[in-house]
């Protein structure tokens, strides 16, 4: 497609006063108008000849093998053409809804060379993202005409849960025994009820741990060391309803929840527990039986990638009753969901309390940092004051719901996305240390 530029429009507009000179000043000036008109036409013809795209203009895209939700990557576009001059090309890619739109990028082409343009790829949702086409735009040597061409690409890239971040966090945990964010060190020894080893008694040890029979056999004072019991059942229940499909810090709440779930699953499997996954909205969408061993993590990873975004209202009654029916033994149930106010959370509170009679329930909610910022902001006008008051009401209702859940015996975590994973692991380790399951 060829369109005139602003310079061409101004050039045409400047021709009107020149055309009026023979009628307003003197008829002998008509050659001046004819000359201006001829020069303008010649300039446009030369622009069309020298600015047209070469026949060998080609665009080739190289995309990453996979995109992780919450992480940015790049699509490399190689532009190759034979130009007789130096041309600045503006490049825009046509993405589908799974990728965030990007500003135009510029590249220079000259002679037979090639240029590589890096286009950021920012995934907004999981699925299969597509880069449909690349649009190129450039101007002629005089800047009078502008060409726009579409080059189909049809590049597909799968967008999956951020397992790379999970592995990195897990590696930091198991190498240093604590996160930089302040996780407590897991006390394998000295707590719990599962026997670990015998150790010579020293001052400061609990006298109740002295093994008198072993001390008599070895002729020295020995104490028993214990560790937290293993082989617990941990079920991660992820809400995939309408509220969880809303974006928070550029990523859907559901994906924040899945990332935290996978990290918890990895740590729980490493520490000897069995982990299952449960997804629900207006009904049960996914359930995997709790299974142990690190080999179970790839299975959970694939199952988590199957959890789809839903616009249905979450039915806590149907879903949590079905979860309770499927669990054959007392388990640690971690529910990752969200709510708006006390009215919509009424059924959620009742069903979580009912589930907590047979199992240890940990309720995890994703806190919106934007709402907290509105509450903390100093109002400068009535509009800002109105938003601050509305945000304050939301925070107050949230605290009321969390208080009700705690009084029902449900463990509650309300954290922003950046801190939810570390706080969840911290709480999980505390539950193991105290043997609450």
Please, could you describe this protein's structure?
This protein folds into four domains: 7-51; 58-160, Immunoglobulin-like; 163-180 and 230-434, Rossmann fold (3-Layer(aba) Sandwich), CATH 3.40.50; 189-227, no CATH class. The strands form five sheets. Strands 1, 3, 5, 6, 8 and 9 form a six-stranded mixed β-sheet that branches. A six-stranded mixed β-sheet has the order 16-15-12-17-18-19, with helices on both faces. Strands 2-4-7 form a three-stranded antiparallel β-sheet, with no helix packed on it. Strand 15 and strand 16 (284-291) form a beta hairpin. Helices cover 37% and strands 31% of the residues. Residues 178-190 have low confidence and may be disordered. The chain is built from eleven helices and 19 strands.
